[in-house]
Design a protein that fits this description.
The chain has about 100 residues and is mainly α. The protein is built from four helices and three strands. The protein has a three-stranded parallel sheet with strand order 1-2-3.
């Protein structure tokens, strides 16, 4: 975050992916400091004309980033998707094997 302008100034950068988990609050990506930092960094990267992306874990968060002009988004979290799939598998087979 502190070196974002220098990173964006490197010739040939194709895109920047911002990781909210790397902002100092771990998995608490909705911490006010993280949210403010993400908004500011998206705007900074865009000012360089570089595509910028991040992850959104809720539809409202995806909409917010879209409104900021995000270029690309990863949607959901792999752990949540895996957990939901495992829960569905367990429930489906539990019913079938009663």
């Amino acid at each position: 975050m502190d070196n974002l302008d220098e990173i964006c100034s490197v010739d040939g950068i194709g895109a920047v992916f911002l990781g909210p988990v790397d902002m100092g609050h771990g998995l608490n990506i909705f911490h006010p400091e993280v949210m403010t930092a993400m908004d500011n960094m998206i705007k900074r990267v865009k000012s360089f004309g570089i595509p910028v992306g991040t992850i959104a874990v809720t539809p409202d968060q995806a909409k917010h980033y879209k409104e900021l002009g995000i270029t690309f988004l990863a949607l959901g979290a792999d752990t949540s998707l895996l957990s939901a799939g495992a829960d569905k598998l367990h429930n489906d087979y539990s019913e079938a094997l009663k």
